[in-house]
Design brief:
By secondary structure, this protein is mostly beta strands. Helix content is 7%, strand content 61%. The protein is globular.
Length: 392
């Protein structure tokens, strides 16, 4: 479960902050089918001792005026060792392959969608199905959208053939978008998620005070609740400036039954340069999280609580991200197959500061630091996404 361990901790957590949907989420709007296009992506993440990169290909094709089909293949190749692995295990390499297909059906002002995703790695298998519907109202000025997904995961553990965990995930979302003026669009969305089953990582450990250990502490396996309910609400707005540029802002509030709550605030600025066939984008994002009730960097003794976690993504932490991007419309004389072509490049820099997750690697150097007095952990990450798009 190396991919699940690192990818879900670092990359999934990071891409909650980054709107990675620039490539993967459908560009369809209510009552309009997605554009027919081919996208070829290379993505790269580097931070916290872990490198994740790989390709992805997305194809969208319409059948008549009412049906749109899509298919996506996505790969994560992971190598390195996070702070947890450096403290208790060795470096590794892993690969995750994801396949997804989808269909959109347009009837008058209603769009219905179906999707299926299969994610596979050597010790984790996941399948997700989804259904969505959106409807235009009030002269196409308002759009109501609803979506439901169901996921089923099988969790294995390398080196233990008898271990098998299972988890189910149910996600429901509701959104309302409104054209307020000729220059202003706003959207309100709410989401609720119910998780049940084996929800923790079978490789991860917590540490507890142990006077009999030379380090002053020892490790034991994490133990999470078997249920988790979470809710999120987000408000977004986009405003077109007088000189054709646009600003976008988003605020998102999240809370769950594990005691985690977070606030996310993001600003984006988009500026087209028509004479250069170029669109530039800048982004600034702030995130703050309160950790889980059963999280602790150092427990007082073995089996101190009914549930226990030392996953840094369940701790108290903040992050700040800046990002820059560019989209270049390739001139007709250079465009492949005489079609519309764009080249796209996005870069994000994210700084993570963990308030109550400490860097235990100081003990590896023989430093005489008491357990719990280690420095707080922090790291920065770089995310690059480069892709080419061609319209049919």
């Amino acid at each position: 479960m190396a991919v699940t361990k690192e990818f879900r901790e670092s990359y999934y957590a990071l891409t909650k902050f980054l709107l990675f949907s620039v490539f993967f989420v459908s560009t369809a709007k209510a009552a309009v089918l997605p554009e027919e296009r081919l996208d070829t992506l290379y993505h790269s993440y580097s931070g916290g001792g872990v490198t994740i990169d790989g390709p992805s290909v997305l194809v969208r094709k319409n059948i008549g005026n009412n049906v749109s089909l899509s298919a996506n293949y996505y790969v994560d190749m992971i190598s390195g060792a996070s702070i947890d692995v450096q403290a208790t295990a060795s470096r590794y390499t892993e690969q995750r392959d994801e396949f997804s297909v989808g269909a959109d059906y347009l009837v008058d002002k209603t769009t219905m969608s179906l999707s299926y995703t299969n994610s596979s790695e050597n010790d984790y298998q996941a399948e997700t199905v989804g259904f969505g519907i959106s409807q235009d109202f009030f002269g196409d000025l308002s759009t109501l959208s609803m979506r439901a997904t169901y996921g089923s995961d099988d969790v294995m553990r390398n080196g233990d053939e008898d271990f098998l965990g299972h988890a189910e995930h149910r996600r429901y979302s509701l959104g309302w978008s409104q054209i307020l003026t000729t220059k202003l669009i706003a959207e309100l969305s709410v989401e609720t998620v119910a998780d049940e089953g084996f929800l923790n990582n079978p490789y991860r450990s917590v540490r507890y005070l142990d006077p009999s250990s030379a380090l002053g502490f020892s490790y034991q396996a994490e133990l999470y609740p078997t249920t988790r309910n979470s809710d999120a609400v987000a408000l977004r707005a986009k405003y077109r400036l007088p000189y054709r540029a646009a600003v976008k802002t988003e605020y998102r509030r999240y809370a769950d039954s594990w005691g985690i709550n977070s606030d996310n605030l993001e600003f984006r600025y988009t500026h087209p340069l028509e004479s250069e066939n170029l669109i530039l984008e800048g982004k600034l994002r702030f995130y703050k999280q309160k950790g889980a009730d059963f999280y602790s960097d150092l427990f007082p003794y073995v089996d101190a609580t009914n549930f226990r976690a030392r996953d840094k993504e369940l701790s108290d932490f903040t992050s700040t991200a800046i990002g820059f991007g560019a989209t270049y419309l390739v001139p007709d004389r250079w465009a492949l197959f005489d079609r519309k072509n764009t080249l796209n490049l996005y870069w994000d820099y994210v700084l993570f500061d963990y308030e109550n997750f400490h860097d235990v690697r100081v003990h590896n150097g023989g430093d005489s630091v008491l357990p719990g007095d280690e420095p707080a952990y922090s790291f920065n990450a770089h995310v690059v996404r480069a892709y080419w798009s061609m319209w049919f």
